[in-house]
Design brief:
The chain contains eight helices and 15 strands. It is α+β, with helices and mostly antiparallel strands and 295 residues long. Bound molecules: N-(5'-phosphopyridoxyl)-D-alanine (PDD).
Length: 295
């Protein structure tokens, strides 16, 4: 098979009980994850060999499974061992671990299969480029806005990601690296793969409250807790694109980057086009808080 992503030789993936060379790792063509997006996923950040916010990601994984009536293929303890073994085999110091659970392979039928469950469990891991990550945190990123065209259960981390794929690809074409998705009332829901935050003129941190409209970001929760502990004023409320454009600072949170500054929205600079002091403070607070919790 010609593999589109040039994974380095010696790179391993995990599929249903086996660690395989990445190039040979595959699932069945009748897998419901492939045919219906009948699957959920998680992305864990690995830093200096440790998982950040691991418990939060595992809790959300269990929540996504429960929401779709999917079952955990292995115990949580076994999953944690598999995650560590994959990181070890791939010699990952800093990177991301991707985990997906599908309902499994069945004869194609929209109806969920009766009978015993046989979920597919897939894990991959790859190293991140520390220079690129440092530059994103230090220099910030540009974003665009797009209508939010996703389904109504965005709190479940499913692999039905086409609206996010389209929005993020549009962002890239416009020289930006994320798209903030906007609901029918003009409020920002979140980014294609990140949660969104602004700081208003009074210095208050603002992020959309949890609901079915957004993914309950694990990094969002850690940053929120860190901000509250540090005594920073925080309000969970919706904000509009106009408010974001007028904000003192804006930033993104996700497992792939905590508090990434936003320096421009739709080509207009935000916060003077430079990362703001509160965003940089939150990066440091996040590092201190999530690092202590790593396992
Ligand atoms: N994305 N919102 C959406 C829609 C996301 O897909 C993500 C994560 C987040 C941030 O969640 P967390 O802080 O738990 O990573 C918010 C992952 C990284 C991805 O799809 O690659």
């Amino acid at each position: 098979m010609k593999w589109p992503d040039r994974a380095p030789a010696g790179h391993f993936a995990y599929v249903n009980g086996r660690y395989l060379p990445h190039i040979h790792a595959a699932v069945h063509i009748e897998d419901r994850g492939l045919q219906f997006g009948d699957s959920i996923y998680e992305v864990f950040r690995v830093e200096t060999g440790h998982f950040l916010d691991e418990a939060g990601h595992l809790d959300r994984l269990e929540g996504s499974l429960a929401a779709l009536g999917l079952s955990m293929p292995v115990t949580r303890a076994a999953l944690r061992l598999i995650m560590r073994e994959l990181v070890r085999r791939n010699r990952i110091h800093d990177g991301l671990l991707y985990l997906q659970i599908t309902r499994g392979a069945f004869r194609r039928d929209h109806l969920m299969p009766d009978g015993p469950s046989k979920p597919t469990l897939i894990l991959t891991a790859r190293a991140s480029d520390p220079a690129a990550a440092t530059s994103r945190l230090a220099c910030g990123v540009k974003i665009i806005t797009r209508p939010d065209e996703r389904w109504a259960r965005r709190d479940i981390k499913t692999t039905q990601l086409l609206p996010a794929v389209l929005a993020k690809t549009a962002a890239k074409r416009e020289g930006a690296s994320e798209a903030w998705l906007v609901d029918s009332e003009g409020f920002v829901t979140e980014g294609g793969s990140t949660n969104g935050w602004i700081v208003d003129a009074a210095g208050t941190l603002i992020t959309r409250p949890l609901s079915r409209a957004i993914l309950p970001g694990v990094t969002r929760a850690t940053v929120l807790a860190a901000a509250k502990e540090a005594g920073l004023p925080v309000v969970e409320r919706k904000f509009t694109v106009a408010e974001a454009l007028a904000s003192r600072e804006a930033f993104l949170t996700s497992a792939s980057g905590a508090a990434v500054p936003v320096v421009a929205i739709n080509g207009e600079s935000v916060g003077g086009g430079r990362p703001g002091p509160l965003t940089l403070q939150l990066q440091a607070l996040y590092d201190a808080k999530s690092g202590r919790r790593s396992g």
